[in-house]
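Complex record, two chains
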Amino acid sequence: MDVEGSVIAMCKAARQAARALATASSDTKNRALTDAAARLRARCGHLLAMNRDDVARGKSSGLSSALLDRLMLTEARIDAMATGIEQVARLPDPIGETIAQWRRPNGLEIGQVRIPLGVVAVIYESRPNVTADAAALCLKAGNAVILKGGSEALATNTAIAGDLAAAITQAGLPSATVQIIPTADRTAVHTLLQQSQYVDVIIPRGGESLIRAITEESSIPVVQHYAGVCHTFVDEYADVAMAERICVNAKVQRPGVCNAMETMLVHEKVAPRFLPAISSRLREAGVVLRGCDRTRTLVPGIEPATEEDWRTEYLDLILAVKVVDSLSDAIDFINTYGTGHSDAIVTEHYNHARRFLSEVDSACVYVNASTRFTDGYEFGFGAEVGISTNRLHARGPMGLRELTTYKYVILGNGQIRE
Amino acid sequence: MDVEGSVIAMCKAARQAARALATASSDTKNRALTDAAARLRARCGHLLAMNRDDVARGKSSGLSSALLDRLMLTEARIDAMATGIEQVARLPDPIGETIAQWRRPNGLEIGQVRIPLGVVAVIYESRPNVTADAAALCLKAGNAVILKGGSEALATNTAIAGDLAAAITQAGLPSATVQIIPTADRTAVHTLLQQSQYVDVIIPRGGESLIRAITEESSIPVVQHYAGVCHTFVDEYADVAMAERICVNAKVQRPGVCNAMETMLVHEKVAPRFLPAISSRLREAGVVLRGCDRTRTLVPGIEPATEEDWRTEYLDLILAVKVVDSLSDAIDFINTYGTGHSDAIVTEHYNHARRFLSEVDSACVYVNASTRFTDGYEFGFGAEVGISTNRLHARGPMGLRELTTYKYVILGNGQIRE
């Protein structure tokens, strides 16, 4: 069969598998997950061998050392992968939950019941742990999954998916529960993105260019995770010591992630007290500042921030700083230049806090806390599928629940419509 | 400005308006709605005059009498439109509801709060009441709306939207809350469908070909409402008299709508008792039957049903009938040929009911009731935006709540991430 035909066949098989998975018990799904974790540990030697092949190919094709590090498996990384799957097994099963139930005047009882989304396709780049992670989350939520990893990790990903599939079959679930597209041929992804009759949602995990390209091409809904240009606004009424702790944490604790602060806004009334001190602390931590004119007057020796800076997700130890006239200006600035991801205000003023929470149009709005908490684990979801910047379906951190939909179950005793 | 430029300007204005609407109080929104209803009644003469122009143009361009009837306004229809808006004003406001709230071990309080979707575009065909209806629902849920009606109703729709906009401005809300695209130029819709930075969702209201064309072209998520090929399965353990009432109702009460029954499945053990009687009742009601071989043996003189029939949404007094061997066969048949809209079982058997509810993969699954109840009003939502056949975001009947999304509001007292 050609690539197109075999991808379509995989999608059809996934749809079939999804039917069986929708009614699989939590016990069965958890047994498959626990067994999968055990198999990964037991087959550590085989996985390392397959991974060595990928790494060797990557080296000879000139992959950067950062990418080689992401690609490389070790015994510890395989163990972490297995532990991750075991954690998913221990999470509560979202399927079957009655979201709401009510009785109509005519006696009909209507229940809104949580069910799996159906077939999920995950398209991702190098890191092979995504194979285990995405498959485990999809399976736990009763979905069939089609995986398309990076070509540089093909042997590793195929080996991981093979172990998962063995555990799944052993538990009595369909082998097409987890499938991996076994080719780097671009026709495969192109074909996959057109199978809207079999695939319910595409989840890309990777950089913004990957996500934009997939969204452009897909006829299936895509869960988007675009840039996080996150702000912290230090209000006139901020507790300055708290503002310092929060801003340092939001910028420095892990600068390369989407919920790190990229722009700091400071109310003009607090700027003379706040900016010099925070600037030295941030510089001590290795942060390069770029500021508006007023910032540069208060903190000499920093580069000017351009219009481009206000829109940039640095993912690095760089921070844009702007002094604003008022709370309203801060809100307008965030709604203009932000990406609707996570934004915080530091204030002791009740009404400023309320206005910020209400008027900033972002998935996560904070008062007096670091934006770094935007995360499925930190929110208490127990797992993270990703962070959605969509407004439809799921917004913000996605846990298992966001891999589900619902059906209405209507119980009658002969009702007809008049 | 050219068409493209002016549509983009409308979309930008809608995004601006959406910001203000998101924080508008229920009182303000309700005042705008009540006033809009009063204006439509007061300006009845003007609306009828504008409508006469549309009807005259429609006649001279050869519109069918059915379409002319849909297009035509009367005093009673204008009054019904106004009453509809008043009903929306009386519905509870979905915005601001706390969907869930919890406290994390570190003291962060996380609330999931319902907010408007943002900017909604509604693209619809002839019937001008959709202008008032869609605008009222979007406004109540705090969304800005861009309306694109059929070109044959342009004068009427523009007049209605003008009255709504006047009431909205009077209430202190932005005039761009409700905008209508004032041209039949196809460039307008094409441009609209590409404005994903300003428009959050497209809701098409019309036939399947309209929806498919829009989905094909749109870079914005589309709420789809595809065909409803709804089934009723009369189980071996059905109360036969109840099955008759339900099947007649599901087919005959209003055959031209998406939740009417199109295919009746009958268990072979009950078929000899059930089929002859129901067939005469349906034929008396004017229904034309098409059957499988076994049906035709039990009910002589009916046409054979083809593979094509099993997939057809007749929207007419035609019914496809099939005798099946078992509950499992009925479920497989529905999952194969159905459209995931609404399907019912008539049975007194506890476990058959449970299996049907669990295994039929449709938005609405019924036991012992007519599929005709799939409807926002019948579900108790108070209003209906449409019925979604999507799996993401909203599934089944959509009320005001389905025109919303959520944000996370996180309250801290200085938390930083370790």
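Note: Chain A has two domains: 3-224+399-410, 230-373.
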